[in-house]
Amino acid sequence: MRKFLLYLLLTSLPLCAVAQTDGLSGPMSLKQCLEYTVENNVSLQKDRLAMEAAAQSRREIVGALLPQVSASGSYSYNIQKTTIAMPNFVNSMMPEAMRDPNAPKYMTVTMGMDQSANWGVALTQQLLNFSLFNAAGIAKAAEEMSKMGAEADTDDVIAKTATLFYNAQVLEYSMSLFDESLAVMERMTGIMEANREAGIVRNVDADRIAVTKMNLLTEKSSLAQALEIQKNLLKLQMGFPMDSPLELEPADMEQIEEMLFAEPAATFDVETQLPYKMLKKQQTMLDFQKKSAISEALPALVFNANYSQNYMGDHFYGETFHHFPVSMLTLSLKVPIFSGMSKSAKVKKAAIEIEKSQRDEKMLVQSLTMGYKNARMQMETNRSTIGSQKRNKTLAQDVLKVTENNYKEGLASLSDLLNASSSLIQAQMNYVNALNTCVKAYIDLRKADGTISSLTR
C-alpha cells in the first residue's frame, strides 16, 4: 500500500510555479482544470509575454527598413559673441599715402549676431542593405520559434495537469474501495457481536476483526492525506489559490477504461511534431545567419534628404534680421573591399552550423519515432495488465461474497473470511495501480503522437 502511495507522489514531482487567481466553485472536470491551467499557469503566462516580446523585436527590425524621419530645432542668444584675430588687411589695402604706419599688425573682428535659430527635417531610407533584410527574416523566424516554444510548454503543462488530475481521481476511487471493505468489516462486527453474546465466538476472534478494521481505517487515513497532497500539487500546477478548496469530479471507471482502450484517431507523423517543426525553423534561422554573413561583403546604399531654415539677427525683425533655407539630397554607397578574411570565416562557420543541424535532424527523427513506439508498446502492455487485474478483482469479490455467506452458515472460518477480505483489498489496489500506470502511459502516448492538446477540447 505504501509503495502505491509513493508511486502516485513520485510521478507528480516536476511542476511549475504558482499564480494567485480566483477560485472556482463546484466539482471540476478534466477539461475545466486544463482550461484554468492554460489561463493561469505562471510559465505559460511568461511564454505569452515572451511571444509578445519577440513580436515587438521583429517590428523593431522591420521599422528600421521603413523611412526614418526626424525633426530638429534650436535657438541661441549670444551673450558674448565670438571674436577672432586676423591680419590687418584693411590698412594694407589702403593707398600707401593713407596707410597708418602705427596701425597694429593684427585686427580683431566680432562674429555673429545677438540671436539665431533654426529648424530642419531629415529623412533616411535604406535602399540596399542585405544585412538588415536578413535580420528581419531572422526576427520573423524567432517570433515563430517563440510561438512553437509556447505551444510545446503548453503541451507539457497539459500533460502534467492531466496526470495530477487522474492521480487525484484514482486516490478518491481507492478511498471508496476502502469504504466497501469497511462496510464488510461492519457486517462482520455485527455478526461477531451477536455470536459472542450467544457464546459462540471467542473474544480473540472479535479482537481480530477490530484490529483488521482499525488497520483499514489507518490505511484510509493515509489515502486521505495523500489525496490532499495530490490536490495541493494540482493547485500548484494550475495556478489555483492554495487557500481555496478544489473539488474534482468523481472518477468514472467505465469512462476511463473506454478512453484507455480506444484506438487513437491520429497516426504518427514526425513532421507534425513540435520538436521537429522547431528544429526546421531553427534551420531557417541558420540559413538567414549564413546569408547575413555573406551580405557583409555586399554593398549598402542609403538615401538621405535634409531641409532646414536658419534665422539670425540682433532682433528677429528689422534690417539686421536674415533667414535662408538649406536643403540637400545624398546617396551613400558603402562597398566592402577587404576584411582580413574574417567574413569568409563567418560564412564557413555558418555553413558548419547548418551541417550540424542536419545531423541533429536525423537524430531527432529517430528519437521521436522511438519515443512513439515505446509509448505505444507501453500502452498495450498496460492495457493487458488492466484487463487481468480487473478480472482478478472481480474474482476476489466473488470469493469474499461466497466466503462471507459460508462464514454465516458456519462453513468457513474467521481466518478464511479475513484472508478473503485481505485478498480483495490487495486485488483492488493492484487494479487501481494498473489503472494509474495505464493513464500515465496514455498521457505519454498522447504527447508522443502530438495530440495531448486535444484533452482541452
CATH fold title: Outer membrane efflux proteins (OEP)
Range of strand content: 5-15%
Helix percentage range = 55-70%
Strand element count: 6
Which secondary-structure class do the elements indicate?
Answer: alpha+beta
Q: How many strands, what sense, and barrel or not for the largest sheet?
A: 4 strands, antiparallel
Query: What order do the helices and strands follow?
Result: HHHEEHEEHHHHEEHH
Count of separate structural domains: 1
User: What are the low-pLDDT stretches, counting only 5+ consecutive residues below 50?
Assistant: 1-23
Number of helices: 10
What is the CATH architecture assignment? Answer: Up-down Bundle
In the CATH scheme, the class would be Mainly Alpha
Distance between the termini: 35 Å
According to CATH, the homologous superfamily is Outer membrane efflux proteins (OEP)
List the helices and strands and how they pair.
Blueprint: H1 2-10, H2 30-40, H3 42-65, E1 68-77, E2 83-87, H4 89-93, E3 106-110, E4 115-128, H5 130-197, H6 203-238, H7 253-261, H8 274-295, E5 300-313, E6 322-334, H9 342-408, H10 414-448
Antiparallel strand pairs: 1-4, 2-3, 4-5, 5-6
Helix pairs in contact: 2-5, 3-5, 5-6, 5-8, 5-10, 8-9, 9-10
Word description of this protein:
With 457 residues, this protein is an alpha+beta fold. The chain has a single domain (2-72, 116-456), classed as Outer membrane efflux proteins (OEP). Helix content is 63%, strand content 13%. It contains 10 helices and 6 strands. The chain has a 4-stranded antiparallel beta sheet with strand order 1-4-5-6. It has a two-stranded antiparallel sheet with strand order 2-3. Helix 2 crosses helix 5 (130-197), helix 8 (274-295) runs antiparallel to helix 9 (342-408) and helix 9 (342-408) runs antiparallel to helix 10 (414-448). The longest helix is centred in the middle third of the chain and has 68 residues, at 130-197. It is elongated. The protein starts with a helix and ends in a 9-residue tail after the last helix.
